[in-house]
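Readers of this paper often ask what the protein records in our data store actually look like. The remainder of this section carries one protein's record, kept here as part of the documentation.

:::
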Amino acid sequence: MGSLLGLTLEQLPPVLSLRQAAQYLGLAEITLKRRIYDKKIRAYKDGWRWKIRREWILEYETNLLSECMA
């Protein structure tokens, strides 16, 4: 898949790889993996690969905004 930059959340595929989610969020893959382990963003493993549902990205972004507003 090409660049995800500039796409809206609705335009993303229903399930993203770790790389795709990191690219969309503007994070390094290792940073996103740390946030998964810290339970800041939900994800699951499909074999050896991390997968993140589109809804979970929205949930993560909403939580970040609420933390900033507090």
In short: The chain has a mean pLDDT of 90. The chain is about 45% helix and 15% strand. The helical segments are 18-25, 29-37, 54-69.
